[in-house]
Amino acid sequence: MANVAVVGSQWGDEGKGKIVDWLSERADVVVRFQGGHNAGHTLVVDGKVYKLSLLPSGIVRGGKISVIGNGVVVDPWALVKEIETVRAQGVTVDHTTLKIAENATLILPLHGELDALREDASSAVKIGTTRRGIGPAYEDKAARRAIRVCDLTDTELLKRKISTLLDHHNALRKGLSAPLVDGDKLLAQLLEIAPKVLEFSDIVWRRLDEAKKARKRVLFEGAQGAMLDNDHGTYPFVTSSNTVAGQAAVGSGVGPGSINFVLGITKAYTTRVGEGPFPTELFDEVGEGLGARGREFGVVTGRKRRCGWFDAVMVRQTVKTGGITGIALTKLDVLDGMDELKICVGYELNGKKIDYFPSNMADQAAVKPIYETMAGWSESTFGARSWADLPAEAVKYIRHVEELIEAPVALLSTSPEREDTILVRDPFED
Q: Is 39 annotated as a binding residue?
């Protein structure tokens, strides 16, 4: 019996929500292991739409334990609001169904404010942050001045930690000509929200060890995509955490041997939100068409996504850096009706052909895609539930993608509905 980590293989927005929900029905425990409420999953279950940012996707299914791991940065006010929203939709959220790691870092109002202040003040590189305080919270965690869930249990400790935190933040705000943070007000805010968070606080690493001993199926749910990884992505246009599958162990308190299958969610074309290099981006009516048919708008921010052709070089690289066992190919139907399709199979950089995505920021911006052209198909793939339902040219496209990225298709998603899925290889039975 395998435990599965689900990660994005591109820049996020690959359709992880549906796949995680599809897998979570058979999992016993679903774990979020990195990121914050800057990422979103849209789930469609029996016609009802759930939009989740912090809560693991398993929360909408009864009989599961949902875990927010220590690698996640938690905005307590956003968390409580999201819990209230899903409860209003009939979802049971209590201390038996939701566990939050006691050593998870908190996002405070000052983090979101600093996010916006620095982005607005920057005259050089703008990252395209969601301004939700994710980066500044991770900075405080790395600098050992963060306030964590467990700190909410001790008022005197909380006072001292706030004082230490504000020594740093108020100096920054003074330099940015922003009002200083009132420590007493922040303390009052935290003490007010504390009971609503501590209700779910738990020793998560122990709960996961108990699940392992009981041979429970655990699903590790990533946010964003591999090219937004703080080490392996398009730095500095990345998120503030590691998004590759290796973080699933670190961000939840289990050993790497607890992860048996890594499923990389992969869109049949490429999209990106925010700033940063995008070699296959399309600025013509083809790109506009992909965006319109794919309804490419961010779940959390509503921002329009940039669209382009499938980049096999990039995905092959994320297969390697993320240890991806197999992919779930999504949104194939968006390519329906196109006369021809292009796939990026290499890059040209300074007159030379390369077969990898470079780390240097200037080189990333300078690479030019080298394309192969394939025939499209006129038939619909929407809602297909077997290979026999797919046009021959669509099957050829899929097989060529597998060959180029050096990873097999384990799942094929053909609509937002969870039943419209072709299972090739069951990750849980690997």
A: yes
Query: Annotation-wise, does 199 bind a ligand?
Result: no
* Residue 213, H or E segment: helix 204-213
Mean pLDDT, 10 residues at a time, over the chain (430 residues)? 91 86 89 87 77 89 92 97 95 95 97 87 62 92 97 97 97 93 97 98 97 95 93 93 95 94 97 92 94 80 86 98 96 95 98 96 96 96 94 97 98 86 89
Strand partners, 328: 265, 411
**Is 140 a known active-site residue?**
no
* 168 is annotated as an active-site residue: no
Catalytic hit among 13, 75, 140, 311? 13
Active-site residue, selected from the candidate residues 64, 99, 111, 141: 141
Helix (H/G/I), strand (E/B), else coil: 312: helix
Q: Out of 1.10.287.130, 1.10.300.10, 3.40.50.300, 1.10.940.10, select the CATH number for domain 105-197.
A: 1.10.300.10
Residue 400 annotated as binding? no
pTM of the model: 0.92
Q: Can 196 be counted among the known catalytic residues?
A: no
The answer to the question of whether 319 is labelled as a binding residue is: no
CATH number of the domain located at residue range(s) 4-103+201-261 in this protein: 3.40.440.10
* Residue 405 to residue 182: CA distance in whole angstroms: 52
According to CATH, what is the number of the domain 266-429?
Answer: 3.90.170.10
Residues 6+ apart with CB under 8 A from 95: 199, 200, 202
Q: Is 300 a known ligand-binding residue?
A: yes
Of the candidates 21, 37, 41, 99, the residue annotated as catalytic is 41
Provide the 8-state DSSP code for 303. P
* All CATH 3.90.170.10 domain ranges in the chain, comma separated: 266-429
